[in-house]
Amino acid sequence: FSSEDDDTISLTDHVKPEKVVCGPGLRRSGDRLVVCKSDVLRHKQPNMFWMESQQRRYVPAKGETIIGIVTVKSGDIFKVDCGGSEQASLSYLAFEGATKRNRPNVQVGDLVFAQFIIANKDMEPELVCMDSSGRANGMGVFGGGGLLFSVSLGLVRRLLSPHSEVLSDLQQLFPCELVVGMNGRLWVKSSRVQQTLVIANLLQSCDTMTAQQRRELFRRVAQGAL
């Protein structure tokens, strides 16, 4: 590997564990950083490192928000397809204002925007649709009239970055509603079905494009060439 001196990180030299933040694809082994996934190494000042991947297989992680699909309604528990190796459980009480008498209206096939509160290899993943204060905070059942599709996990992280160039370029083309799940699922809704399909195709194309190629594609769409 070769890179500019200012961009270089040594993966063999000793590092100070308390001063380095490891993101996805990196882990600590004693006082060393170890790469556990073959991807592109990214660095954010001053001390955050992670591997940006194009993988599509999702591994649930506690605290992440995802777009799930309700597959089974069994008693007090809903089973939700979250894109991982097994389905997650979602209690009917895990919604804002839900009680034994006031149950949420959730049906099989509904989309839910939810957060993991349990996610480890030894236990069944568990979701909730409210934050620690009991508020929905944007979570719950949604999805009427929109389109659900999948992208790589790397693109999801790019979309969720504080100053996402992809989102900035997209907002200049079409106004739309966009829900981003950390499990690689996106839901989009625009004023017209044609615009919704164009947005979905543009976002899926961004997976394999460089920044220059993406800007050129968006420019052609803005001019009506596509």
TrEMBL record:
Protein name from the UniProt record: Exosome complex component RRP40
Organism: Nibea albiflora
